[in-house]
Amino acid sequence: MTQQQARRPGEIAVEPLQTSDASLQYIGRIQTPWPRREDCPRQGDLDGPECQIEVFPPWDQALAGLEPQCSLEVLYWLHHSRRDLVLQCPRGRDQPLGTFALRSPVRPNPIGSSLVRLIEIEGRVLRVRGLDCLDGTPLLDLKPARSTFMTTNSVR
Amino acid sequence: MTQQQARRPGEIAVEPLQTSDASLQYIGRIQTPWPRREDCPRQGDLDGPECQIEVFPPWDQALAGLEPQCSLEVLYWLHHSRRDLVLQCPRGRDQPLGTFALRSPVRPNPIGSSLVRLIEIEGRVLRVRGLDCLDGTPLLDLKPARSTFMTTNSVR
Predict the structure, then answer these.
(1) Parallel, antiparallel, or unpaired for β B22-24 and A12-13?
(2) What is the pTM of this model?
(3) At the N or C end, where does chain B have fewer CB atoms within 10 A?
(4) Of A22, A65, A138, the CB nearest to B21
């Protein structure tokens, strides 16, 4: 990703850092009905289409204790996103805005977060509703949603 | 982080992957009143103590458009966390639970997420309430909270 990439009027790109401060591992893969970015809904919907989250071994063992119908926070890696824009102008906007004032997938660390409802766990595959990401998106983490957590768990 | 680390009864560790699928860059630093993990509150509180988020250049430019009193989702790197437990037994629990059923900082990709209220922006420092992480925690991302975003913005 370089400054040479196309920019819309008002967008500002910075020189991407070449350093790596920390490393991620993909622990699963997300299946959605949306193969292209332009197909993705603008925001996840808890009544939206069912998607599947496949958790790779050995991390499927870490699903123990999750119950159907719970709310989960899903973190994933927006693997097709450029990372160099500080000001950006998403489709539908005529004025650029700072990256941190938007939930655009274009960010210095392109981590997506969604709130989903867990429908069912079948082996190491979770059926959920509420996602808005591309088909094939790499999974980074699953956590009980803050609200669920605060009412049903007393520990971190 | 290896299997040789101390485990509590019932905890299960896996061999950590040596591969890196994606790289993170630290884009800021979080200041909190909590220098040790045992000092941290178990859950962030929007009425809790004020904390500061310093955003490093050039990413301070990406703050444009954020307004005081808005709700922000903060993503950060839990830099002192081990990453190898699939079943864990946090303090206060007597039975182990899967990592994905807990909001413990111990996770395969130790990314923390908190919901905060932005009090004020002073240059490239944000004063916020709602965090629960260690002093010195590296910042990964800032996004408008989903709820704020859904009511005040129509684009991603």
Answers:
(1) unpaired
(2) 0.92
(3) N
(4) A138
AA identity, residue A114: S
Flag if B102 and A144 touch (Cβ within 8 Å): yes
- Could you say which of A17, A144, A154 has the minimum Cβ distance to residue B92? A154
Query: B81: which chain A residues are within 8 Å (Cβ-Cβ)?
Result: none
The Cα–Cα gap between A86 and A97 comes to 8
Are B134 and B114 within 8 A, CB to CB? no
> Residue B18: which residues within 8 A CB-CB, separation 6 or more?
none
Min Cα–Cα distance to chain A from B81, Å: 12
A112: closest CA of chain B, how far (Å): 10
- Spell out the residues 6+ positions from residue B38 whose beta carbon is closer than 8 angstroms to its own: none
- Alpha-carbon span B98 to B89, nearest angstrom: 9
- Which position has the token pair 């119950």? A67
Q: Is the dihedral of CA B89, B92, B95, B100 positive or negative?
A: negative
Rg (CA), chain B: 17
Alpha carbons B56 and B76: distance in angstroms, whole number: 14
CA–CA min distance B21, chain A (Å)? 5
Specify the DSSP element, H or E, that contains A127. Answer: strand A125-129
Residue type, position A9, single letter: P
**Cβ atoms of A95 and A107 closer than 8 Å:** no
Residue A3 confidence (pLDDT): 44
Residue for token pair 């925690």? B137
DSSP conformation letters of B29-44: EEE-S--SGGGS-SS-
- ipTM score here? 0.92
Q: pLDDT tens digits, residue range B71-111?
A: 999 999 999 999 999 999 987 788 899 999 999 999 999 99
Note whether B119 contacts A: Cβ–Cβ < 8 A: no
